[in-house]
Amino acid sequence: MYDITVIGAGITGTFIARELSRYDLNILLLDKENDVANGTTKANSAIVHAGYDAAEGTLKARFNVRGNKMYDEICRDLDVPFKRVGSLVTAFNEEEMETIQCLYQRGITNGVPDMKILDKEEVLAMEGNLKEDIKGALYAKTGGIVGPWELAIALAENAVENGVELRLNSPVTAIKKVEKGYRVSAGEKTYKTKVVINCAGVYGDQIDQMINEKTFEILPNRGEYNLFDKSVGDMVKTVVFGCPSAAGKGTVILPTVHGNLLLGPTADPIDNKEDTRTTFDGLTSINDHAKATLKQIGFQDVITSFSGIRAKVARKDFIIEKARGREDFINVAGIDSPGLTAAPAIAEYVVEMVQASATSLEMPLREKENFNPRRTPSIHFMDLSTKEQEKLIAKDARFGRIICRCENITEGEIVDVIKRKAGATTLDGVKRRARPGSGRCQGGFCAPRVMEIIARELDVDMKDVLKDGKGSYILTEKTK
Amino acid sequence: MLNYEIVVIGGGPAGLAAAIEAKKNGAKEILVLERDLELGGILQQCIHNGFGLHVFKEELTGPEYAERFIQELKDMGIEYKLDTMVLEVSDDKKVRAMNREEGILNIRAKAVILAMGCRERTRGAIRIPGTRPAGVMTAGTAQRFVNMEGYMTGKRVLILGSGDIGLIMARRLTLEGAEVLGVAELMPFSGGLNRNIVQCLEDFDIPLYLQHTVIDIEGKDRVEAVTIAKVDERYKPIKGTEKRFDCDTLLLSVGLIPENELSKSAGITLDKITAGPRVNEAMETSVEGVFACGNVVHVHDLVDWVTEESRKAGRNAARYVSGALKNKGNKIAVQGINGVRYVVPQEIRPENLTGKTEFMMRVDAVYQNVTLVAKIGEEVLRSVKRRHVAPGEMENLVLDLGNINPNNMENLTIELVQEEGA
């Protein structure tokens, strides 16, 4: 019998599971995929928003501003790349200048610190690559960038280190109400649990409707992106938002925590929750935005394009509530932007909800004495000093062997991310953790090598090493 | 700090030929650094034949061609380190590398020869819409899986791009029992060698779709279908020309990019068109004493030309170390114009020219019955007729520059002139 089952190991689910792992509870974290962070968390803008976007009084506004403040400590504890590079909302005409004034006012109302309206000269001093016809911009010092899947993976790892049980390849197919809890069927197994927390992202409505009458519907909405090579990573220094309009929140141009340049997203309603294709028109529209905003941008430096699916709901706010008053079924749904930023605050709030129901659930929350907020530090070989590098190679020769020649990732680092808790089992799983294959050759050279290492470390045949999700086999059979 | 006269970065065909030639020309302490587990570079996965026709006057496989140089290198006692990655080259010719056994290596060289080769362009670089499943890979990666690891990468294959590796893989996968459904090429002509079109496609009845590109990839986990369409003269897909192929694999052979991250770290000037270092008649880059050769300079279509170019680099690196290479006099810029996309070398120094100098170049489109004309200013140095030229086939032109006016200030240009009435 589990105390709490969290469904979905994306950024929301992993944050909640890890926050709950502070307490003496039996926690189960389920995900349908073969890795954590394999849905929306792996394909989004990677921005820690300042908090002036959401309408005042909404959960979005409240958790955005609160979540933003929590990022420094969490990313330090979990050794996740996070940079407060600041953000700009650009204005190219008078109408847009008025819009950013409104955003500024809303930011004040929402409690966003350190904002300023910049004039043309100030903007250009900050971002020299913006077109000269810029009029001004809203600057928010607290805006930042983060590695979203690195964060979710780190949270899952730390949660497991603190006793959470993680079950991957476990799509939830049925939830039955039983006395004092639920019976959850997932994968081949059935789990009994006192409490269910639904963090199933774009499938949040389906999970909810397994037990409840329909009260909300997820409206999947796709965003497409272009990722550029590091050689053009300094085209902008801050997160540069286009001015929001009736048409949408505006396209963003930003550096990533790894020094690449990211451009996107589009916003298109779609029918199929798995439809993560990119389209010619979509990519053209974001490229056109970049051309209109920047003096210099070269599309020959795009190294990959991708898309992610937002879990939108009609309510235009997060749904974080007990399902129709059930004390033991909490929906955390509709977590679209600024969901990544808000996630730590959402987790805090959800734990408070559980706490408030603790007596009626006969599930007291006692803090563990041995909770460790820090995960085992990861190794970034190229960031070490020469002395440290030499020491590490002397201790373990695998750190002397570069596998990914674009990003200079060693065999030692790759083995490490496979061996960790919630470790990598696929080519993309290794890529998301240690970055081989995320450089300019996109795995052309290192993929065979990384597959060999995965096969060796997990004792499987090369042929059975997957690219990413189930069914994403790379090799078909032995040659003749 | 280790000290060598010449450090060669890369142990593929370029690095091997350069090291051997440097030794033959008097350099003593030479070190070849190779990041792979064996010497020979990409040749080791090119198990088809057709290598060596010019250099050895016989047809060899890639590994056989490599082996001749590897053996010679070993016989000459040239030092090399395998599984060793160079991290940085500085403009004062210090090389930082690492490997499992020795850890971090700091090496000071009198001359450096860059021979890192090239990499394949990827899906992202050409903006193919659709999903991102397994089964989309570059032709070279597939070649490695099939020829070196012994695994097939799919059963029904479509290939985008008619570069040589793609053509070679069309034949290779067919021989291994896969069904190759076709090759789509964006341009109105193939980017590969004509002999490969004949031997790898036509002989196996594999259709080549010129002026076509991929407009959609379907399949969430593994490729399920790929759609191609004809493009107009501005490379835009034309509605109504779509062809959808049920397949599990899309191979990309859409170009090679010289691998110059180390060159950039040394502050070397790169040529915008070749994407490789600009070099002079000695294959020396903009940083004195740093030479470059092979696919890191410009992408070749025959390894034989890589060998010849690399011998030139090796010879001159040895001359540089011994002080025989001059660098005091006038420099003449070399330019490709009117249909000649680029010329290597990009610069010549008359004081080092002893007679015949070879220039390598590529044209920008397919032309019939043209003349390649080399001039200094308005003075024609040489003109040579060509019945057929194409971007996929590198052209060379030998000029006798022994008597060039050392104080000449005009550019040397090489251009295409269309024959009258042609």
Main β-sheet description of chain B: 7 strands, mixed
For this structure, the CATH topology of the largest domain in chain A is FAD/NAD(P)-binding domain
By CATH, the superfamily of the largest domain in chain B comes out as FAD/NAD(P)-binding domain
What integer is the average pLDDT of chain B? Answer: 95
Write a structural description:
The complex is a heterodimer of chains A (480) and B (422). Chain A is of the alpha+beta class and 480 residues long. Helices cover 31% and strands 22% of the residues of chain A. In chain A, strands 5, 6, 7, 13, 14, 15, 16, 17 and 18 form a 9-stranded mixed β-sheet that branches. In chain A, a hairpin with a 4-residue loop joins strand 21 (402-404) and strand 22. In chain B, strands 1, 2, 5, 6, 7, 8 and 19 form a 7-stranded mixed β-sheet that branches. In chain B, helix 4 (139-149) crosses helix 5 (164-175) and helix 5 (164-175) runs parallel beside helix 6. The interface between A and B is large, with 55 and 53 residues.
